[in-house]
Write the structure tokens for this entry.
Amino acid sequence: MPQMRSLVFKNGALYDGIVSSSRMLCHIDGDKLYEGTITSSSKALCTIRNGKIYQGTIVSSSRQLGLIDDGKAYKGTIKSSSRVVLSFKNGTVYRGGIVSSSKAMGSIKGAEYLDEAYLAAMIHFFVEPIFA
């Protein structure tokens, strides 16, 4: 899996390195994250709806991997009974729930304003399986 510091987000796609000379890992189309470059021939990795990340394309029949609320990514379906796996602050991603005592994972260049649910899904599928 690539290192987070080498990832670049540009025009709705995540690249492993310099955009012009590296491969596209995934792209966003609507509320779905697709592996690869072309939506019609790519595998849908997950669907993101209302801050919730679902494995699969049909929300009603897909397993919920996690949810995002108030700058934190939770593993599970209900915030009150789920573990915080990531925290987001000023474009930097941290492991755990308390930024001041958590290890910084770093940031993805160009993803500073990306919805945190998409960012968490990209980290899960391409950096480290946080919802596993």
Summary: The chain has one helix and eleven strands.
